Amino acid sequence: MTTALTLVIANKNYSSWSSRPWLAMTELGIAFQERMLKFESNDWAQNIATLSPSRLVPVLWEGDLGRGFASFDTLAILERLHELYPDKGIWPRDAKARARARSLAADFHAGYRALRGAMPMNLRGRYPGKGMSPEVARDIEGLTGHWTRTRRDFGASGPFLFGPYCAADAYFTPVASRFVTYGVALEGEARSYQQTLLGTASFAAWRKAALEESEFVAADEPYAQPR
Ligand SMILES: N[C@@H](CCC(=O)N[C@@H](CS)C(=O)NCC(=O)O)C(=O)O
């Protein structure tokens, strides 16, 4: 694969979907450039139609930005990366582990709406106790149950869900960070897996850049004092 890759993303403090392919590519050593379109900016208004067929981020461009070939939607981007770089470990090598990793990513992609809605990603924010409800607690129980069972059934060869890092871990890293923002305390295997995700080099790099951002995006700040 020699075609240049560019990932179009939004604010690192807020854009959890952007973070997933960025984290996976960074952690697995796939070279790319990034093009950030900040939410609610003139840059976004002027360029989103050219840079994103879905008018959402993330988008992966192969070749010239806005003129080459675009894959959009997080899961489709990860599948495209798996095809371009079959040896990088985007998905696990073992077929059943791979099927389970895809199940977990697709399940999260389509569901967990209570958790995703009430606890939006916000790396700089600290809102302990905010966002919790019986529905959110059910989502957290379901998700952490998946983490614990997957670690038990597939994770013996390393600290991630399927041993070595893969796209499913990238999927759950922004969730691990939401639990920090909203003060959700995990226990046991779920907690140690959360800490593993927060300790990755890719997340450290993403987080550092996020904390250098100063934009306040009201739509992603349901618990902030009005400005
Ligand atoms: N299912 C899509 C969701 C993408 C999405 O909702 N992205 C948000 C940012 S995290 C976005 O582009 N929001 C801008 C808008 O709604 O106008 C994916 O997985 O890529």
Your description of this structure?
- The protein is built from 9 helices and 4 strands; from the N terminus they run βαβαββααααααα.
- By secondary structure, it is an alpha+beta fold.
- It has 2 domains: 80 residues, Glutaredoxin; 115 residues, Glutathione S-transferase Yfyf (Class Pi), Chain A, domain 2 (Up-down Bundle), CATH 1.20.1050.
- Helix 1 links the parallel strand 1 and strand 2.
- The longest helix has 21 residues.
- The radius of gyration is 17 Å and the shape is globular.
- The N and C termini lie far apart (47 Å).
- The relative contact order is 0.16.
- The model has no long low-confidence stretch (mean pLDDT 97).
- Glutathione binds next to helix 1.
Q: What top-tier CATH class of the largest domain fits best? A: Mainly Alpha
**Sheet of most strands:** 4 strands, mixed
Q: Unreliable segments (pLDDT under 50, ≥5 consecutive)? A: none
C-alpha Rg (nearest Å): 17 Å
Major sheet strand order: 2-1-3-4
Query: What structural class results from the helix and strand content?
Result: alpha+beta
Identify the overall geometry.
Answer: globular
Strand content is 5-15%
CATH fold-level assignment of the largest domain: Glutathione S-transferase Yfyf (Class Pi), Chain A, domain 2
β-strand number: 4
| Tally of individual helices | 9
